[in-house]
Write a structure and sequence with these properties.
314 residues, alpha/beta, Spore Coat Polysaccharide Biosynthesis Protein SpsA, Chain A, 2 domains, ten-stranded mixed β-sheet, 10 strands, 42% helix, 19% strand
């Protein structure tokens, strides 16, 4: 078995058929299995999954929860059960748009034994049409990334992920603590064993909708979930990457301090700056000049403007 395609699904009645069809349309020269890990949906998703299994019993394997567990165990059991040399991930509300997606990623990993992970670009589609379609991966994405790069932030769309099975053994028990963040911990574990390769082609679609696990959170809530993630995984990995994690925290929150400042949200900009300052604010990504420049515009510049305004009014 060359590839195990792991589809994770819960209450995806409006999306699951398109996801499964996008897997079954793959044009490949190797054997692959479709492993569906379904978490006791209440909207009819399980019935759709069972119908597909009855149509393709030689291609599909099912992992069905007896009750809804709403945890990363749904992902972990699929990875632990996979038979393929490579594992491709697909959430049940996303789908692939290229019939050659699996073949291209397998060919890439076969050619590049130094890579643990392969990913590609993906469209982001807002189901409510509140935003125009955009690409997940920026144009300047390099072909090969490192463990340090993925520590700085998760730049891999889940639906674009393929990785080598067995690099880190069975999924560690602490993985369940990071729900609903499912993919980033896996990328970190895999990237300890090789590079991250990129195919510059849009071959999947990430759906952004109100029923998603992560999309309902506000940007501020996502910021704090990211901070919680960094702190929790630092502990889970016995602080082996303490310095790089602190660097990542500072880089991430300084960038958001600048974003909030640009949008006029001075209060949240200062909160982000304070988080940056408590980690490792001066590092290879943040010069003293840049750090002080942000401090100046968040704290000193408003005072100068206030003083000047008071003098003008006087």
């Amino acid at each position: 078995m060359k590839v195990s395609v792991l589809v994770i699904t819960y209450n995806h009645i409006s999306f699951i058929a398109k996801a499964l069809d996008s897997v079954l349309m793959q044009d490949v020269n190797f054997d692959y299995e479709l492993l569906i890990s379904e978490d006791c949906s209440t909207d009819g998703t399980r019935e759709v999954v069972l119908a597909y299994y009855n149509r393709f019993p030689d291609k599909i394997r099912l992992l069905l929860s007896k009750k809804n567990i709403r945890s990363n165990q749904v992902v972990a059991r699929g990875i632990n059960a996979a038979k393929g040399q490579y594992i491709a991930l697909l959430d049940g509300d996303d789908y692939w748009i290229s019939p050659h997606k699996l073949q291209k990623q397998v060919d890439f990993l076969d050619r590049h034994s130094e890579c643990a992970i392969c990913f590609h670009n993906a469209k982001v589609v807002h189901e409510d049409s509140s935003q125009a379609v955009w690409n997940w991966t920026p144009e300047n994405q390099k072909e090969f990334s490192t463990l340090e790069d993925i520590w700085m932030g998760n730049f891999i769309a889940t639906c674009s992920t393929m990785f080598r099975q067995g690099l880190f053994g069975r999924v560690p028990t602490w993985y369940d603590d990071f729900f609903p963040i499912t993919d980033w911990p896996l990328h970190l574990l895999n990237a300890e064993h090789g590079l991250i390769g990129y195919i510059d082609e849009v071959m999947g679609v990430y759906r952004y909708h109100s029923g998603g696990l992560y999309s309902p959170f506000t940007q501020v809530q996502k910021l704090y979930k990211t901070l919680d993630f960094y702190q929790a995984i630092n502990s889970a990995l016995d602080f082996r990457y303490d310095e790089i994690i602190k660097t990542a925290i500072s880089k991430y929150f300084l960038e958001w301090a600048d974003e909030f400042f640009a949008s006029g949200n001075m209060e949240q900009a200062r909160v982000c700056f304070k988080v940056c300052a408590t980690a490792k604010p001066i590092n290879k990504y943040i010069s003293i000049r840049r750090f002080l420049r942000t401090w100046f515009k968040l704290y000193l510049l408003p005072r100068v403007r206030s003083t000047n305004l008071a003098q003008e009014n006087y």
